[in-house]
Amino acid sequence: MSKPTILTVDDDPQVSAAITRDLTGQYGQDYRIVTATSGAEALAVLARIALRGEQVALIAADQRMPKMTGIDMLASAKDHAPDAKLLLLTAYADTEVAIQAINDIGLDYYLMKPWDPPEERLYPVLDDLLEDWRQANPDHTADVRVVGHRWSDRSHDIKMFLTRNHVPYSWYDIERDAEAKRLGDLANATPADLPLVLIPGGDTLRSPSALQVAGALGLHTTAQQPLYDVCIVGGGPAGLAAAVYAASEGLSAVIVEREAPGGQAGQSAAIENYLGFPKGLSGSDLAQRALAQVTRFGAELVLARDVTGFEARGPVRAVRFSGSGEIEARALIVATGVSYRRLAAAGLDELTGRGVYYGVNASEASQCQGDEVYVVGAANSAGQAALNLSRFAKRVVLVVRAASLVSTMSQYLIARLAAAPNITVRYCNEVLGAAGEGHLEKITLVDRISGAIEDVSASWLFIFIGGTPRTEWLGPDVVRDDKGFLVTGQDLMSFGGGSRWPLTRPPYALETSVPGVFAAGDVRLDSMKRVASAVGEGAMSIYLVHRYLATV
Ligand SMILES: Cc1cc2nc3c(=O)[nH]c(=O)nc-3n(C[C@H](O)[C@H](O)[C@H](O)COP(=O)(O)OP(=O)(O)OC[C@H]3O[C@@H](n4cnc5c(N)ncnc54)[C@H](O)[C@@H]3O)c2cc1C
Q1: Quick check: 30 and 64 in contact, CB under 8 A?
Q2: What's the pLDDT at 138?
Q3: Cα separation of 454 and 36, whole Å?
Q4: Mean pLDDT computed over every residue of the chain
Q5: 117 prior amide bond cis, ω within 30
Q6: Within a 10 A sphere around the Cβ of 191, how many other Cβ atoms?
Q7: 56, 55, 47: which is closest to 8 by C-alpha?
Q8: If 0-12 CB within 10 Å is exposed, 13-18 middle and 19+ buried, where does residue 126 land?
Q9: Which of 202, 451, 490, 535 has the smallest number of CB atoms closer than 10 Å to its CB?
């Protein structure tokens, strides 16, 4: 396989030579650096690369070129290299057009010229863009291989686990791919062995649990130390932020995550309201960046473990895992967010994982190629999912109970749904039931106004109807509201916390009714339910942990 290309386009020979020199020195080992001196020449180069079936990772174009501007060139380049990252080299005077191009052509970044010294002003930007590109275009030669049935919930769970933990894998459908049959025969696999998970240069796992896959991949599934300063349960934005701040401020910290780092945010196709990312970023990208930061600062990550018990042992706060294992720490942060609420309709439970899904991730979206897809929900998460699915599906139908989306969804998403030619919104509709032999084939919808019932053929139903916290495992001493949200700080007083709070000092802002146990993010009563606020609370909880630890 040939190296992916980085193409630079600049009509000024001096600038062109300088950028080629800088890029060859830094990236020449992994990428082919190609230079063009005009927009037309660049498009011709890209057409030839596309014909050869090769990949283009990044195109860096100067804005001010005669005949064709950089933005026009990059817009046309997308026909030949749709996945390439687009970088515009600009002068200060072009800032406004560059910002506009983020919306208009999906420009990834604009860089002011000159970029000296490149170590500070060029390479960090390109490292980021190329890392994103690599994530989205993994090298499949080193992939984990998963062989199974398309509509098997076990296969779905394993694919979900790998995707969300950023483990590249190739999927082989036993009913459709000759290679799947070959791999199955080679492993002497019986139907009960599916899904098969083939680890490169390693084991063949037969119908494994996520914990077994994690173990075979060398991910940590147990804690390394007997006692930590702080244990964080939940690796969503709140938990990851807490880990970054804890580890960067010298606390020994461990996060326990049962599914995959990133939490709910990890499933978002495009987070557009998070500060500092004007083009938006996918939840998976955010999770990946946060994980790199957590690892860099040295916090420990324990994966594929479900925390199911809590105990205060004198000054020690201990959590127990499902099955066996536990962690002891001097303080605990609960950042477990919310889990999808189940939709109560006949037939849905039997078909969950077989065409009916709660949430959606990128790998499922691409599997809906050419199909008819139904999405249930009226909040931003449902709107984002519908838009993401519409890139692959023939048609997406958003099923909404209310007569309008105005009070539940952001205006920018409503406008995009309306503008998408293959998205229909069915207002005042509800899912009454679902049916299918082995996988989803039919959904029954009811019109809430006329009462009319209609059966529609569909093999995909994605449900986004909000979430509830799962906090029972904390036991009776940690005060919760009737839905399970954790009550913290001053709010404890209105929940009878005055009598339940054991210390003379008042509880800190994010502290629960058990001293040294904090809550951050969506799991906390009256939190804002956004990525930025979860990150903020995660960071703030560490400040409070410091204060708490100083008292014990
Ligand atoms: C599809 C979608 C799109 C969204 N888009 C946006 C957006 O564009 N902008 C925005 O601001 N917000 C968005 N949100 C909301 C945002 O994602 C949440 O507010 C945010 O993720 C909350 O972070 P958190 O860390 O509190 O909890 P979560 O993200 O819910 O993370 C909690 C983590 O804890 C883990 N966990 C739970 N219980 C246990 C246990 N017992 N043991 C071990 N681990 C456990 C879970 O597996 C999960 O990974 C979106 C949400 C969804 C679902």
Answers
A1: no
A2: 77
A3: 58
A4: 92
A5: yes
A6: 9
A7: 56
A8: buried
A9: 451
pLDDT tens for 285-343 read: 899 899 999 999 999 999 999 999 999 999 999 999 999 999 999 999 999 999 888 89
Q: How many A from CA of 404 to the centre of ligand 1?
A: 26
Residues having CB within 6 Å of any atom of ligand 1: 233-239, 256-259, 263-265, 267-268, 271-273, 306-307, 335-338, 380-381, 384, 470, 473, 521-523, 529-532, 534
Cite the DSSP H helix spans in 37-177: 39-51, 70-77, 95-104, 118-121, 123-136, 153-164
More confident residue, 400 or 358: 400
Inter-residue long-range contacts of 436-442, CB under 8 Å, 24+ positions, other chains counted: 436/347, 436/351, 436/354, 436/355, 438/151, 438/354, 439/150, 439/151, 439/351, 439/354, 439/355, 440/351, 440/354, 440/355, 440/356, 441/355
Do 193 and 185 contact (CB within 8 A), yes or no? no
pLDDT tens, residue by residue, 464-501: 998 899 999 999 999 999 999 999 999 998 887 667 89
Whole-angstrom distance, CA of residue 65 vs CA of residue 515:
64
β strands within 452-539, DSSP E: 453-457, 460-463, 467-468, 517-519
pLDDT surpassing 60 at residue 362: no
262 alpha carbon – ligand 1 mean position (Å): 7
Atom nearest to 261 CA in ligand 1: 49
Determine the pLDDT at residue 478: 96
Report residue 361's pLDDT band, with 50, 70 and 90 as the boundaries.
low
For helices 283-297 and 123-136, angle between their N-to-C axes, nearest 10 degrees: 120
Alpha helix (H) residue ranges in 222-282: 237-248
Atom of ligand 1 nearest to the CA of 280: 8
Say how many Å lie between the CA of residue 252 and the centre of ligand 1: 24
Which of the 8 DSSP states describes residue 480?
Answer: B
Nearest to 434 by CA among 369, 343, 370, 339: 343
Tell whether pTM > 0.85. no
- What single letter denotes the amino acid at residue 435? A
Which residues does residue 301 pair with via DSSP β-bridges, in sequence order? 255
The tokens of 445 are what? Answer: 């919808």
| Of 259, 277, 264, 157, nearest in space to 207 by CA | 157
- Mutation to probe ligand 1, out of 264, 294, 381, 485 (largest number of atoms < 8 A from CB): 264
Q: How confident is the model at residue 2 (pLDDT cuts 50, 70, 90)?
A: confident
pLDDT tens digits, one per residue of 225-284: 999 999 999 999 999 999 999 999 999 999 999 999 999 888 787 888 899 988 888 888
- Say which range, 97-111, 204-218, 266-280, 329-343, has the weakest mean pLDDT: 266-280
Instruction: Look at strands 300-303 and 253-257 and give their pairing.
Output: parallel
Q: Pull the structure tokens for residue 543.
A: 């400040």
How far lies 3's CA from each of 46, 59, 60, 143, 412, in Å? 14, 15, 17, 18, 39
Q: What is the pLDDT of residue 53?
A: 80
Does residue 74 surpass a pLDDT of 70? yes
